[in-house]
Amino acid sequence: ESYKNKKMIGKLNFIDDSSYWHYCIQLSIYKKLLKEYDIRKLFIIHITTENYFFIECEDILKDIDLNELLF
């Protein structure tokens, strides 16, 4: 959930401006950069003092060209 329903800017203005989506974008960029490795799923690993959790991320950049975001 984003703070005060804030959205990202530019071509990503349909995405909530929250930590979860920032990490999803980051992992999506890594996936595009490492395309020769056939990465199928993206995960955040949340580690606590007692346990750890896998949180699956959406590949939100799968249909977006990175060059479109930069220019």
What do you see in this structure?
A two-stranded antiparallel sheet has the order 1-2. The chain is built from two helices and two strands, in the order αββα. The protein has 71 residues and is an alpha+beta fold. The model has no long low-confidence stretch (mean pLDDT 89). β1 (42-47) and β2 form a beta hairpin. Helix content is 28%, strand content 17%. The relative contact order is 0.19.
Supply the key terms:
two-stranded antiparallel ribbon; 71 residues; alpha+beta
Short summary:
By secondary structure, the chain is of the alpha+beta class.
How are the SSEs ordered, and which strands pair?
Elements: H1 19-33, E1 42-47, E2 52-57, H2 66-70
* Unreliably modeled segments: none
Mean pLDDT: 89
Radius of gyration: 14 Å
Q: What general outline do the C-alpha atoms trace?
A: flat
Structural class by sheet pairing and helices: alpha+beta
DSSP strand tally = 2
Question: Sheet bearing the most strands, described?
Answer: 2 strands, antiparallel
Distance between the termini: 28 Å
From N to C, what is the helix and strand string?
HEEH
What percent of residues adopt helix (DSSP H or I)?
25-40%
Give the count of helical stretches.
2
Query: What portion of the residues fall into strands of 2 or more residues?
Result: 15-25%
Which strand order do you get reading across the main beta sheet?
Answer: 1-2
